[in-house]
Design goal:
The protein has helices at 12-21, 38-48, 82-91, 106-119, 133-143, 166-169, 174-177, 181-197, 290-303, 312-331, and strands at 3-8, 28-34, 55-56, 72-75, 95-98, 123-125, 150-160, 203-209, 223-229, 235-241, 243-254, 258-261, 272-275, 280-283, 335-336. It has 345 residues and is of the alpha/beta class. It folds into 2 domains: 3-126 and 292-310, Rossmann fold (3-Layer(aba) Sandwich), CATH 3.40.50.720; 132-278 and 319-336, Dihydrodipicolinate Reductase, domain 2. The strands form 2 sheets. It has a 9-stranded mixed beta sheet with strand order 14-13-12-11-7-10-9-8-15. A 6-stranded parallel beta sheet has the order 3-2-1-4-5-6, sandwiched between helices. Helix 3 (82-91) packs parallel to helix 4 and helix 4 (106-119) runs antiparallel to helix 10 (312-331). The longest helix is centred in the C-terminal third of the chain and has 20 residues, at 312-331. 50% of the residues are buried. The structure holds nicotinamide-adenine-dinucleotide. Nicotinamide-adenine-dinucleotide (NAD) binds at residues 9-14, 36, 76-79, 81, 99-100, 126, 128, 166-167, 170, 176, 184.
Length: 345
């Protein structure tokens, strides 16, 4: 059985990655589109066999409540709109898959979690790397001790923010993006540190560097370097940037071996190496379609009434930690976190 998805927002990521991936999914199918641009929606509907009666705009969105073909709403809008559309989807009685970052503030995340609970529906955050085979293998090796004791995780995510690209225009506006490189791609560095160690950070320190004369960084930050301390003593050294050429990697340094995944959070063509004192070997496993795997994970969780692996609480945790990163940078001193990611002083 396949559950029906409504895709909300027909932007770059929805059109190029998500919608084409339904063809590789086993328990998910595309049944509805929500867009402010009817012509675009009609073209997409035609290409992917979506019934024209299942095209909605942002005003008629709430009428999805009357459409039994839609089980799950996948929100792929600018970050500041995630909370509103998640709550409206729950009110319509649907389950929700929401893009990262979950929302702009911790309060919004809490509202989203509460709305899902009250509706008795599932909420999952689209942390695709946690459904991607190379990342899963790196997690397994790290957690099962194959690298020895993990002492350090480093991760870097950077790219050039381009004001000519529509998808980057709202990313320069704080009211839509919520934050800069940290919210957009630093979240992958943060996620890597958390899922590799399986621990929650207890302290964060941070530096931010943005060129004030660069119009791209009038409202949102450019370069962020932050460190996390985990309860076991493991440290993470993490970065994100909107002004350096593309990088999406992490490294895990253990007492027996180190592991490099570079690229780590690409859509495909991941490369993994493990290095010991004696040898360096390449680890090759079959690539999978992480987007299809992610959607199928939620579909199966709904059908089997299980909590998804990356629920709203996971998204809330990251938003709290990213807020602490901003605070640590602003105050110029480390910020302590409790186990939920909330600042404890
Ligand atoms: P995009 O600009 O290409 O898509 C956003 C869509 O929202 C556009 O179609 C736009 O028309 C629509 N929209 C509706 N209301 C809007 C408004 N008020 N202002 C601006 N746009 C509005 O951006 P994108 O790169 O596709 O990102 C969309 C979301 O997906 C973001 O939350 C982003 O973080 C996430 N994303 C995730 C990944 C991933 O790998 N998981 C990759 C890219 C983007």
């Amino acid at each position: 059985k396949r559950l029906g998805y409504a895709i909300v927002g027909l932007g770059q990521f929805a059109l190029n990655q998500i919608i084409p991936s339904f063809s590789e999914s086993k328990s998910s199918k595309l049944v509805a589109l929500v867009s402010g641009n009817r012509d675009k929606a009609l073209q997409v509907a035609d290409r992917y066999g979506v019934d024209q009666k299942n095209i909605y705009d942002y005003q008629s969105f709430d009428r999805i409540a009357d459409n039994d073909e839609i089980d799950i709403v996948y929100i792929i809008l600018p970050n500041a709109l995630h909370a509103e559309y998640t709550v409206r989807a729950f009110k319509a009685g649907k389950h929700v898959l929401c893009e990262k970052p979950m929302a702009v503030t911790a309060e919004e995340c809490e509202t989203m979690i509460r709305a899902g609970r009250e509706a008795g529906r599932k909420l999952m955050i689209a942390y695709r790397a946690q459904y991607e085979p190379y990342n899963l293998e790196a997690i397994r090796m790290s957690r099962e001790g194959e690298l020895g004791k993990i002492r350090l995780v480093t991760s870097d995510h950077g790219r050039i923010l381009d004001p000519k690209v529509p998808a980057d225009q709202w990313r320069m506006v704080k009211a839509l993006a919520g934050g800069g490189s940290l919210y957009d791609i630093g979240i992958y560095s943060l996620q890597a540190a958390r899922y590799i160690t399986g621990e929650e950070p207890v302290e964060v320190s941070a530096h931010i560097s943005s060129d004030a004369s660069d119009p791209r960084f009038k409202e949102v930050e450019d370069l962020v370097a932050f460190q996390l301390r985990f309860p076991s003593g493991t440290l993470a050294n993490l970065t994100s940037s909107y002004s350096t050429s593309s990088v999406k990697r992490f490294q895990v340094f253990g007492s027996k071996a180190s592991l490099v995944l570079d690229p780590a959070t690409e859509y495909e063509r991941h490369q993994m190496k493990v290095k010991t004192e004696k040898e360096e070997r390449r680890v090759q496993i079959p690539e999978g379609n992480q987007f299809a795997a992610e959607m199928d994970h939620l579909s199966n969780a709904v059908m089997e009434n299980r909590e998804p692996k990356t629920p709203g609480e996971e998204g809330l945790r990251d938003v709290r930690i990213m807020q602490a990163v901003y605070r640590a940078a602003q105050e110029g001193r480390p910020v302590s976190l409790d186990t939920t990611g909330a600042t404890s002083r």
